Each structure stands twice: as structure tokens, then as C-alpha cells.
Amino acid sequence: MPAIIAPRGTRDILPAESWKWSYIINTASKTMTDFGFREIHLPVFEHTELFARGVGETTDIVEKEMYTFNDRGGRSITLRPEATAGVMRAAIENNLCAQGASAKLWNWGPMFRHERPQKGRYRQFYQIDAECLGISGAMADVEVIALSIEIFRRLGLKNLEVVINSVGCEKCRPVYRQKLVDYFSAHLGELCETCKDRLNRNPLRILDCKKESCGRVSDGAPDIFDSLCDECREHFAEVRSGLERLGFTYTLNKRLVRGLDYYTKTAYEILSGDLGAQNAVAGGGRYDNLASAIGGAKIPGVGFACGLDRVALVMEEQGCSFGEMPAVTVYCVALDNESRGAVQVLTHKFRTEGISAECDTSGRGFKAQMKSAGSCKFACIIGADERANNSVAVKNLSDGSQISIPVDEAVTYIKERM
Ligand code: ATP
Ligand code: MG
User: Which of 1, 64, 134, 388 has its C-alpha lying 20 to 30 A from 218's C-alpha?
Assistant: First the structure.
């Protein structure tokens, strides 16, 4: 029988890599806390309706990327393709934004999209996500963008570009949408099949098409800035001046539209020069229409999602530091079989005192145990003599020196030298 392997587009994050992921998540977590964001945990599956309405029927995600199935009760369930809709659902359901209150929430975890797997693009991937709910002013947009930049600064990422745009609101976008339909209709022959199909359903998405021919047509498309209403124009100006006040540089890209329908006003992405085609390490923006789209009261929001897999890739490529690799401090070694019990007791003592320790649990001999001790700072060796006089031989594995001390003093001895 052939061995069962992981489904296409998924992969295992093994210990050699997982400690680096922990470093990224811990850095993000600390930064979120420093910005006043609090962590929440959400279900990884939701009613399909949440994403159909909250992400938008005409988006790539809903049209072709979702993992949707009927559960045993016959309900349509979808593995979350993104986090924002779930965060907003949770905020509404738990009244986090009642009476004009605001909530700053973050979370991280796996997302699922049925895409063509390639470098930096997987079917199960991970996002670190931050959402600021209940605030409609531009200062919140600036805070969210600053938060994402600060996470990357702390991680040491270089070569990043912040790209921003405004996609308008329900008042001005219909006008712009019509201008686009008119324009692209006149260039229909130059568009790819997918974009032809997008023309009447979601013409803004044509602007985002990665195909060169569509890009050329889009370059001549009407400019969204000319269609923004006064409110959106002012909001965008405030976002820009806020970013400038904090000393950030950014570029404007009128073709940046985001794949999700609920976005209003600010849209932004952070791009890395070291990722090739999958170059976005984070994307986000404002989504003032999401709450009403999923049946809640009107709650404005702004947030971002950062691709953990891609951040890890870029950091690896740029030789960024992941901090110190976790290592076990002490290895306890039994010289003979009779000492194995004493060794396990000592190992457990270290562990309960907050000193990382290991011992052999598989009955291997002295030499094999000493070999395992090689990656630790100390070996604590117990044999017949040590048992007879309640001592332990402590070997410092970095300089090879060895001394005998009372076993009761082992914890203090190691703590002083950690
Ligand atoms: P892309 O244009 O690369 O498909 P997107 O616009 O679909 O990205 P978002 O929905 O904005 O991406 O998700 C935010 C971030 O999540 C992206 O910037 C990226 O870093 C990451 N991401 C999205 N899809 C994937 C995937 N399939 N595999 C790995 N990371 C992903
Ligand atoms: Mg995508």
C-alpha cells in the first residue's frame, strides 16, 4: 500500500522551522499588545453564508477558492479563507461594538484557499490578522498601517514597499464602476478571458489582473481619484498626511483594489522585493460595509492580514535573525541501569524548577546518552558512587570541566550558570 501523504498545497512545519514561526508570532503578539490590540480565537470553519456575503459573491475567493462542504447535519460549512469576516461576526455576536464602542482585535491561524500551489502560495496558509472595529476616522487607518510596518521593522525585514489607494465608498464607487465598464468595454478584445468575464460582475478586479496585456489596458483606465466623493477624498488625504507625520514613505497605486468586495476607502499592501510573483506580505484596508453585509448594525472597520508563510520565506532569504534557537540546558545521564530512576527524578526536578532538562527514556547506554547530551550546556551524570553519597557529577559541555556536587545543590548550581 502506498503511504498516505499530505494533501496538495499543505505542508508540515517541522521543528527545524517551527521555532522560527514562534519567533515571528511572538514578535507580532508583543507588537499588537504595544498598540493596544487584544487577541481572540475564532472557529476555523463558519457558515458558508458568512463568506458569500462578507467576502463577496463575485470575488475569486468565493467563486473558486473556498473549501465548502455540507456537514453531517446538512449545513453548508466553509473553511475560513480569511479572518476579517469571522472577526466581524464575532464582534457583532458578542456585542463588542455596542453603543459606539470600539474593539482592537488580533488573531493568527490557518486559512484555506483552493489555489494553484507555488512558492509562497499554499492551500492551507497562515495569517496574522489585526482588526480595528468601530472607528471611522482616518487615524485608525494610520494606526493599523503603522502597526503592520512596526511588526516588519521588529522582524528586521528590508526592501519593503507600502502601497496605498482608495477604493471609494458606496456613494462614489458606482460612478467609478460605470466609468470602468465603459472604458473596458471599448477595449474588450485586449482583455484576458477572466477579465472579460469580470467586466460586468466586478470590473474593479480587472485593474488587479496580473496579465501583461490587461495591465496595459488598465494603465489607461479612468483614475479612481477623479471619482472619489468629498468624504473619501478627505479621508484619503488624512491617511496620507498621518503616514507622513509618522515618517513613513509609501507609493500610490490606483490599480490596487484588493480582492474583497467589502473594502471601502483605504486599501493598502506591503510588498517585498524578495518574493517574486507572490510579493505581498500583508494586505488590508477599510471595510465600512462588511458589518451590514453580514447582517449586523453599521460598524466601520480597518485592518490587515499578514502572510506568515511569506514573511518566514522573506526573512530566510534576507538572512534575518530569528532570535536564539531553543535548546535544552541539561542532559541527565545514567552511568548504569540502577541509576536510571535517580536520573529521572533529577530531570523532573530541573523541569519543575524551570530549567529545561532531558534524559534517556529508551534504555540506551552511557555513550549514546553522552552523545545526546552534546547539544546541551551541561551533563549531570549519576552512577553507583553518586547514588551512594547523594551527589551528581556536573560536566560543563562547553569547556569539558567536571565537578561533583551534592544532588540537592544541582538546581542552584545550574541556575547560577545558565
Ligand atoms: P495574492 O494577491 O498574493 O493572492 P491576496 O490579495 O489574495 O494575495 P489577501 O486576501 O489580502 O491576499 O491576504 C493577505 C495576505 O495573506 C497576503 O498578502 C499574503 O501574504 C497572504 N496570502 C494570501 N493567500 C495566500 C496563499 N494562498 N498562500 C500563502 N499566503 C497567502
Ligand atoms: Mg489571492
Answer: 64
